Amino acid sequence: MAEATPQTEQPELHRAIGPKLLLFFVVGDILGTGIYALTGNVAGKIGGALWLPFLLAFVVAFLTAFSYLELVGKYPKAAGAALYTNKAFKIHFLTFMVAFAVMCSGITSASSAALAFGRTYLRQLLVEFFDVALSPESLVITGIAVIFIAALAIINFRGVSESVKANVVLTCIELSGLVIIILIGAYAVIAGDGEPSRLTEIHVPSGSSVMLAVTSATALAFFAMVGFEDSVNMAEECRDPVKIFPRAMLWGMGIAATIYVLVAITSSLLIPSDELAKAGSSALLRVVTVGAPGFPLWIFALIGLLAVVNSALINMLMASRLLYGMSNEKIIPKFFGTVHPFRRTPWISIVFTTGVAVILVSTADIGKLGGTTSLLLLVVFTIVNVACLVLRREKAEHKHFRAPTWAPVLGSITCAYLAMPVLSGRPWDDYKIAGYLLLAGLVLWVINRVLHGKVEIHPEKLGK
C-alpha cells in the first residue's frame, strides 16, 4: 500500500482585528438592515408603541450576550455556537445543525439587506436622480440585488482586514443616518409637531391579545438586534480576544439599542403606525419626508443604501468563515476549507454562501428573510444559553469572563419563547424557509457521512 501523501498545511487566518475595529464590527453588524428596512413591518404588528419590541428584543439579546462572552472567553475559536454545542452535548449531528443554522442566518440576513438595497434605497435614488420609477418586484431590481451580492463576494475575497476597515467607514455612515432621524424627532418635539399619545398605542388584531401582539412584534424586531454573535466567529482573527470581547460586545449592543429606541420613538411621534406599516421598508424615508420636508431625500437614501451594504458585508463575511470552520473539522466536504494562497481567504466557502444568497434574493421578500433570520438565531441562542450552564462544570486554565447564572437561565427561556410557533405569533413562512435551509444542511450531512463515514469532531479545531 502506498504511503499517504502528507497534506499541505493551510495558512492561519490573519489576526487583524483590535478592540476599536471589533467595537465597530459589533455596532455595524447590529445596526443596518433591521432598523433601515423593517421599522414599518414592526409598526404593522405593534402599533404606535414601536419602541417597545425593540427594547424587549435588546433585553433578550443582552441576556444571551453574557453567555457568549463567557464561552468565547473559555474557547476563543472561530466556530462560535457550534463549538459550544459540541463541548456541552457531544452530539455530532446537533453540532453540525447549529453551525449550519448560524451560517444560514448570516445568509438570510445578507439577502434581506440585498433586497433593501435594490427595492428600497437604490430605487429611491433612481427616482431622485433619473425620474425612473421601477416596481420593487421588477426583474431589473432583483437583478441589481444579485449583482450586489456578487460584489460583496469580491470584497470578502480580498480579505478580513479590508472588510472590517470598510466596515468602520460604513458604520460611521449608517450611524449618521440614524442620528439624522433622531435629530428630526427632537426638532419635531420642540416645534410641537409630534403626537406623544401614539407611543402607548398597541394594536391588537381581532382574535388576538396584547401579549401576542407584543411578542409577535418582538420576534420580528429581534432581527434588528442580531449581529453581536457574528463577532464570536471572528475570534481567530482578533488580537487577544479574551480581553477585548466583553467590553466591545456590551458597549456595542448598548449603543445600538439606544439608537433603535430613539429612532422608533421618532417614527411613532411623526407618523401613525398604519402609515409606517404601509410604507414597509421605506418607513424611514417617510419619516424624513414628513419630519424634514426640506431635507434632500437622496442623501438619506444614499445613507440607507450604504447601511444595508454594511450589514450584508459583515453577514457574508461571517457565513463564509463559519463554513470554513466546519470544513476544517470534516463535518462537511473538506474542499470548503480551501484557503487562497495569496489572499489567505476561504474562497470556496465564499462562492458557496454567495450562491445560496442569490437563490434567496430571487425567491423571497424582506419581511420573510428577516423573520427567518431571527427564528434561526433564537433557536441557536436557546441552545447556547443551555450550553453555557452545562459547561460550567468544565474549568478553563486561564481567567475569563463569567456570566451571572440568571443571565443564561432567563436567556434560554426568553429565546425559546420567541421561537415557539403559537406563543410568538410568528408567521408560518418563517418556519418554512428555515426548514428548507436546514433540510439542505441535512442533505449535505448525509452526503458527507456516505462518502467519509462517521467523523470524530475535535472542538478545538473547529475554527482553524
UniProtKB/TrEMBL annotation:
GO terms for cellular component: plasma membrane. It is a multi-pass membrane protein. It holds the Pfam family AA_permease_2. It is found in: Cell membrane. One of its GO terms (molecular function) is transmembrane transporter activity. The chain crosses the membrane at residues 21-38, 50-72, 93-118, 138-157, 169-190, 210-228, 249-271, 297-324, 345-364, 370-391, 403-421, 433-451. This is Amino acid permease.
